[in-house]
Specification:
Layout: E1 3-6, H1 14-22, H2 30-49, E2 54-60, E3 65-71, E4 75-81, H3 85-94, E5 99-109, E6 115-123, E7 131-135, E8 138-139, H4 143-151, E9 160-169, H5 170-179, E10 185-192, E11 194-195, E12 201-202, H6 208-213
Parallel strand pairs: 1-10, 4-5, 4-7, 7-9, 8-9, 9-10
Antiparallel strand pairs: 2-3, 5-6, 11-12
Helix pairs in contact: 1-2, 2-3
Length: 219
């Protein structure tokens, strides 16, 4: 069974971060855009960490032995390039010992205005028995998340799957819930009501990759 954690339903600084990501008077500062995305990744990572497993170990301090809990789950954070990199960095701030995976996925546009999601590159360790955190800042149609997840299927069966996004659409969230191969937790900063005719989230924030790293050439 899948569960959606919409962080906009409670009070936190994520509201301020998303305000600055959306605001056209602020978002053109690429460094600040990346930083706010990273902050959201760090905050969501912290929320995920509350649901993982820990075990007490005895360690030695300068003064005495000490019982201290440590994370026992193995975490793999996988991001969808290129827009996901700042979000990925925030998650790694929370899980500095996590293994890393990277997936190249993009919209391949057709002359009739339709598009498909193309996955061209996957670099990832084994996922068998581990906690997978799959992250991408924008969950528009949900197809990028699903195609990326499908591309990982030969790398083992994760113990848990956590999907992380900054902004999603209601349609994309429902698509992912209905089409995902197994149960997962979705952690998301906020959910917007609709997609426009080009399948961009409205009100959304624009192109997260371009805002973080500069406008790309179309091909």
């Amino acid at each position: 069974m899948s569960k959606v954690h919409n962080l906009s339903l409670s009070s936190s600084m994520i509201h301020q971060y998303i305000h600055d990501l959306r605001n056209v008077d602020v978002q053109t500062n690429r460094e600040l855009f990346r930083m706010n995305t990273q902050r959201i990744g760090r905050a969501i990572g912290w929320e995920i960490s509350k649901h993982l497993n820990y075990q007490s170990q005895i360690i030695k301090t300068p003064l005495s032995d000490c019982h201290q809990k440590v994370l026992t789950d193995e975490v793999v954070s996988v991001t969808i390039l290129r827009a996901g990199l700042p979000l990925h960095e925030g998650i790694l701030d929370t899980f500095p010992h996590a293994e890393n995976g990277f997936i190249s996925a993009y919209r391949k546009h057709e002359e009739d205005g339709s598009f498909s999601i193309e996955v061209e590159y996957v670099a990832c360790p084994s996922l068998e028995g581990k906690v997978l955190i799959l992250n991408d800042p924008m969950l528009a149609t949900g197809r990028s998340f699903l195609n990326a997840w499908t591309a990982l299927r030969d790398l083992g069966t994760p113990k848990e799957v956590h999907c992380v996004a900054v902004i999603g659409s209601e349609e994309g969230v429902e698509y992912l819930k209905n089409e995902a191969p197994t149960g997962f937790d979705l952690w998301i900063g906020t959910i917007d009501p609709k997609l426009n005719d080009k399948k961009y989230i409205v009100p959304g924030l624009g192109d997260a990759g371009d805002l973080a790293f500069g406008t790309k050439m179309q091909h």
